[in-house]
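Hi F.,

I've been meaning to write this up properly since the lab meeting, where we talked about keeping a consistent format for the predictions we share between groups. The idea is simple: the sequence comes first, exactly as it goes in, then the structure tokens exactly as they come out, then a line or two of notes. No screenshots and no reformatting. I'm using this chain as the first example so we have something concrete to point to.
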Amino acid sequence: MHIQFAELPVFDQDRTKAFYTRHFACQVAADEKMGHSAWRWIELTFPGAVTNLHFVRRADDTAGAEPVLVLVDENVEATIAALKAGGVEIITEPQEAPWQPGRTVAEFRDSEGNRMVIASQ
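Output, unedited:
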């Protein structure tokens, strides 16, 4: 799996970190205090990925309407099945991308309500 976008807007860093380490086997590359605030610099790495995932602060707990992250995976169906089995909200089941015939896409929401896309190569 590789990431096309790397910044993720979040409200609760611990909840988000737990979501991605549990469902995507991410490893914590950094988790450091930033000044005197409770906000931390957190970076997660996806297994086999070149790009790290970094959390950016969101003003409140309201998620945006548009997808904020695209994960590219070899087996979209298996990944969505595993997420569903883990209690993750699936927005759209795997289907052919209307903008790119032959490419499979699906959508889910992470712990922060962010809309995510998983797409085949």
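Notes:
The longest helix spans residues 13-24.
The chain has a mean pLDDT of 86.

If this format works for you, I'll send the rest the same way.

G.
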